[in-house]
Amino acid sequence: MTEQSIEVQLALLCQQMQAMIDESRSSRADMRAEIRSLKSDMADIKTQAAKWKGAFGVMLGAAAFIIGLVTVWEKIGAAFKG
After folding, report:
1. Dihedral sign, CA of 22, 23, 24, 27?
2. Dihedral of the CA atoms 23, 29, 32, 34 (nearest 10)?
3. What does the DSSP assignment read for 55-73?
């Protein structure tokens, strides 16, 4: 091998290494962006779950209130019949 061909090969290797480094940085940046997006989505899901949990609690409370009213109504009706 001549000195010039060694320099050319070395330059090519340097270019390949630089391309790999750039690709690695790019993929890490893409991964960071994806992670940020997933964190945001997870926060949205948690917020929505909290809303549904609250709505479910309200519905359970309303159902218990209605059952209580019906029970009291039946007892009052039974008291006036008896």
Report:
1. positive
2. -80
3. HHHHHHHHHHHHHHHHHHH
DSSP 25-63: HHHHHHHHHHHHHHHHHHHHHHHHHHHHHHHHHHHHHHH
82 residues of the chain, pLDDT tens digit each: 677 788 888 888 888 888 888 888 888 888 888 999 999 999 999 999 999 999 999 999 999 999 999 999 999 988 888 6
Distance separating the N- and C-terminal Cα atoms of the chain: 116
Q: How far apart are CA 65 and CA 56, in angstroms?
A: 14
Residue recorded with tokens 């008896």: 82
How crowded is the C-beta side of 1, counted as CA atoms within 13 Å? 8
The token pair that represents 70 in the structure block = 């019906």
Instruction: Give the predicted TM-score (pTM) of the model.
Output: 0.52
